[in-house]
Design brief:
Helix content is 67%, strand content 0%. The protein has 121 residues and is mainly α. It has one domain. It is elongated and about 95 Å long. The N and C termini lie far apart (81 Å).
Length: 121
């Protein structure tokens, strides 16, 4: 027990043990025959996984197209609503404040911001 511990020697011993074990597992993996039934099962699983992926991908594309159409319809609906509000306001002699791209300082979430109330450049 009077031996002193040398970390370099311990590390080299651990590396050598790892190399020997890795070689043993490599030999085992290369020399182990796989039965034809197991191979067929694995290939079937891969094919089913690819098919499920394709179905999922197609379903996602359809969902994204539907979402895109929904957003387009939402934008058109908002525009139609704005036009109706403007028509009603005109018929009732009400003046509207149009702020296309400009938020008045009083309506800004940051009224102290120097850019509040100015048109974008």
């Amino acid at each position: 027990m009077n031996e002193s511990f040398n970390p370099q020697v311990a590390a080299e011993k651990a590396r050598e043990t790892y190399r020997k074990t890795a070689l043993q597992f490599e030999d085992l993996a290369l020399n182990t025959p796989v039965s034809e039934g197991l191979r067929a099962l694995a290939e079937k699983n891969v094919a089913q996984t690819r098919e499920a992926y394709e179905h999922s991908k197609d379903a996602l594309e359809v969902a994204l197209e539907t979402l895109e159409r929904s957003f387009d319809a939402l934008g058109q609906g908002a525009t139609a609503l704005n036009h109706k509000v403007m028509d009603i306001a005109q018929r009732n002699n009400i003046q509207l404040l149009y702020t296309f791209g400009v938020v008045p300082r009083w309506a800004s979430s940051r009224p102290d911001d120097p850019s509040a109330g100015r048109a974008p450049a």
